[in-house]
Amino acid sequence: MFSFHVSGEVIISQEPYVCVPNNSSSISRCDGCFASSNLKKCSACQVVWYCGSNCQKLDWKLHRLECQVLSRLDKEKRKSVTPSIRLMLKLYLRRKLQNDNVIPSTTTDNYSLVEALVAHMSDIDEKQLLLYAQIANLVNLILQWPEISINEIAENFSKLACNAHTICNSELRPLGTGLYPVISIINHSCLPNAVLVFEGRLAVVRAVQHVPKGAEVLISYIETAGSTMTRQKALKEQYLFTCTCPRCIKLGQFDDIQESAILEGYRCKDDGCSGFLLRDSDDKGFTCQQCGLVRSKEEIKKIASEVNILSKKTLALTSCGNHQEVVSTYKMIEKLQKKLYHPFSVNLMQTREKLIKGYIHSSILCLGCSIIPVGNLNGFLVTQKMQSNP
Ligand SMILES: C[S@@+](CC[C@H](N)C(=O)[O-])C[C@H]1O[C@@H](n2cnc3c(N)ncnc32)[C@H](O)[C@@H]1O
């Protein structure tokens, strides 16, 4: 048994058993390192991209098999090969390579770890089951391996849903999806003692506080900056369990109500007051729990609808690549949200996060302002003042 004393200390790290970049019609990434520039498409299958011969060579044993199955498909069918279908194909192809001793198996890198993952087959609803069966059918058609059944593939899709991880870069932009069977053993807490980050494709679990000898290492599967209801809903929907962590068991208690109202509720009408608001019993407005001022529902609705219109505008602007306009629209949203939400509101924080990402994207990050994002800890964007040049 180990104990981890220092915040930031690495507890465990693992390379993915399988992973795929989140390629779409608008963005392609290298299958090896997820880079998005200088890419060349595999000339045989016309599906997979590489940034150069290094990544292509490293991936060759697995891609040789994948390339064979993808090359059999006609052009239209190849378009239906989504990243999740590719992840499933790679899972079976890697198992085959290890069974045939083409690539080695180790205690932390073998298919039996995938077999042991929780699938929740008896907890998922019929609609979801049907969806898994349909996509499993497609995988079956592509692979043409009579020894694997549609049921088994569907079960593996269910496993991926509650065990696979989104691989993000240091700016927390999603790059791809990976399955890390050892990391998947780690359970969730809304008050975690560790965090999962990615260094390229490598998944690294780091302590965020002292983890005493024998204590369970717990990470958060979801954005922790949310009300208990929001967190519970997200965990139930994707991971099919009810969290009973120290934060969740406080549901309905004063501390929990206060935290939820700060994170997701409105601000006091008085700019100088930092109180949190609760809905009045007659449902006509919201009263500040510190100074007693009331905000009407109508006033709140009006600002919220202006925010809504601007948010839709950012979607349209983003899709046509107008990043400068995106940034100025987020600035307007931030101004309105400052009037609407509590200063520690998640919505406000998310807008600021998008604003900073927008600055980076449109390359107008003003070094004079000296603010750069350095990470996201427990869902809060941490910023760091850059040292001014001597
Ligand atoms: C990635 S797996 C974690 C490992 C899993 N406990 C196992 O034994 O294989 C995710 C699943 O673990 C369970 N789980 C994780 N954290 C939990 C928690 N705090 N309370 C209850 N179940 C949890 C849920 O069933 C969830 O879908």
UniProtKB/TrEMBL annotation:
InterPro entries reported for this sequence: H3K4_H4K5_MeTrfase, SET_dom, SET_dom_sf, Znf_MYND
Pfam families: SET (PF00856), zf-MYND (PF01753)
Sequence ranges assigned to domain SET in this UniProt record: 21-222
Superkingdom field: Eukaryota
Keyword vocabulary terms for this entry: Metal-binding, Zinc, Zinc-finger
Descriptive protein name: MYND-type domain-containing protein
Domain MYND-type: 30-67
Keyword Metal-binding applies: yes
Gene Ontology terms for molecular function: zinc ion binding
